[in-house]
């Protein structure tokens, strides 16, 4: 147990400092250790350590985390070293005069404690250590501690890429252990000219390496490590939020862990057959694979309707695909003998080139562009990447349904905004929807490429403190756990006269 009052220092200021002497407070007297009073002795247990970050000049070593079982033996050694250094501590009278260049090339060990404090060590020589604890500067001589600390320095593995020739529509595997954060997001960008280093923040809060870079994938970082497999997409999200096709041929993949970034030269190739993406995400499920006939992309009717909750049904008697809520009347059918397959939208036949359904493998296939247009969605075909991108909007709540109750109306509007912001991964907007000091949930790294395609409110319930609970059902596409439906309880509270989200569970 740590038995001292600690003041938290900036970890980044120490780890990233490249010039100047060790930036620590002025030295004061060393801690007093009273042998006959065990409560005055400062001791450390493994569980007192949250993380250990280590670096030497520009080399950042693999960090240690209290949450990682494999790191426990190393953390135990760190705890013992910290105790030993305090037992030998003397006031630091030297580090302030060390040349800045020498400081840069010294090894730094930053221990983040579970209670928010820090224990910062600078290796000054074969047996010399400078350290800060509780906001005070100390130094000690301990050759064994230097040797043990150096033995904990493990260089990260070379980031693994399963291929240097990613093909659109095929899987690519990336794995590494060079992320410094315990939890976070790794972002993969593609750029044909290899120009990175702009450090530009987009409107929804994503740091782009350049204006030309396309964001193609995001995945979670866990305990400083990442291990992701994804389908190489045909489209990526540009700095301005639009979707743009990935460039083929020589290109660069750039990854950013939030603390470290690197890139790899690759050759991107076109897919082996025409491919469909929905809102930029490649469709990989076997049930929703497109077929191209006479230049028209066709999709299986049932799978399309299930995936996007489009109201579609098949009238076997009249050989007609019926789209929308309005069905053709008897008089219409009297004039249609069903001699050929047809598509009807809200009771009216769809005509023109590329509007006919096709029967394939005992299943009805609908023309994608005609069907999407009928539901107000857009389809863009990009020949270079042999891909069509279907842009769909979620089926949102109808606010007028809740107009009689101002609380429910505000909640419905907020839920609609929440769905749209989650789908676009717009953290900036989401923060405005949540109450002050409330975390946006779920975190983007937890939902992968999940797309909300629809939302319904099952019920409202009053909660203490004039709060309001909305029981909500979402429908999903591309959920990382394969879920198509998910129930959430969204709690709303009033803040400065406006209804804000307090919790999502």
TrEMBL record:
Organism (species): Paenibacillus taihuensis
Residue intervals of the Copper amine oxidase-like N-terminal domain: 278-386
Signal peptide from the UniProt entry: 1-23
A Pfam family the protein falls into: Cu_amine_oxidN1
Keyword tags: Signal
Record-given protein name: Copper amine oxidase-like protein
Keyword flag Signal: yes
InterPro entries: Cu_amine_oxidase-like_N, Mao_N_sf, NTF2-like_dom_sf
